[in-house]
Amino acid sequence: MGRAFEFRKARKMKRWSAMAKTFTRIGKDIVMAVKEGGPNPETNSRLRAVIQNAKAANMPKDNVERAIKKASDKDTANFKEVLFEGYAPHGIAILIETATDNNNRTVANIRSYFNKCNGTMGTQGSVEFMFDHTCNFRIPAEGQDVEELELEMIDFGVEEIFADEDGIVMYAPFESFGSIQKELENRNIEILSSGFERIPQITKELTPDQIADVEKLLEKIEEDDDVMNVYHTMQE
């Protein structure tokens, strides 16, 4: 198994999948998708992907439809995706993906978390290069041969593919998302969920006390309503 498998395994064991937070994130994704490409999922591939993710997270259909309707309203503020970078104690790089309708508020909040937890907020590009930006797709395992599928999907950018208890997962570079989504749809293969992740190229092992220092900062960041995802180089 490769780095993507180990990364997903480690994150799956993490504490951070509170249902309310997940629904908030999906709601923001819907707003950004609708503002970008319109409210019709048939003609908006990004919205189509978000709806699949909402279904995978057991988000009620009424909530999804309500979010799409609200996003179509001209008075609804759009969210801007902003990336923050920095270092936690003990040299651990942190990459933070946010979706905000008030960048000044988000900048102030993120900076305060770093300051309170002995971290350092970095400049643009200071740690992003330490992470591979990837896309991923989950499909049903039934009727699929993993090795055969891997050979067929290499041409569309897939670099790693593996099966787990929830289906088959494919990883590829960020830029390959559109071509893989299109090919899976052309083959009438159901996409259970899809998304983007940033996988650290190297990780650093810490002592239990050092881990506690880093976790303190991570928890503060993850609790912020504007934060969508947090990635780091600490070995889990």
UniProtKB/TrEMBL annotation:
Q: Which UniProt keywords apply?
A: Cytoplasm, DNA-binding, Transcription, Transcription regulation
The record's annotation in InterPro entries points to: Integrase-like_N, TACO1_YebC-like_2nd/3rd_dom, TACO1_YebC_N, Transcrip_reg_TACO1-like, Transcrip_reg_TACO1-like_dom3, YebC-like
Annotated TACO1/YebC-like second and third domain residues: 79-234
Alphabetized GO MF terms:
DNA binding
- Could you tell me the superkingdom of the organism this chain comes from? Bacteria
* Regions that span the bilayer: none
Which Pfam families does this chain map to?
TACO1_YebC_N (PF20772), Transcrip_reg (PF01709)
Q: Which residues form the TACO1/YebC-like N-terminal domain?
A: 4-73
What is the protein name stated in its UniProt record?
Probable transcriptional regulatory protein H9X54_006330
Tell me what organism the protein belongs to.
Flavobacterium macrobrachii
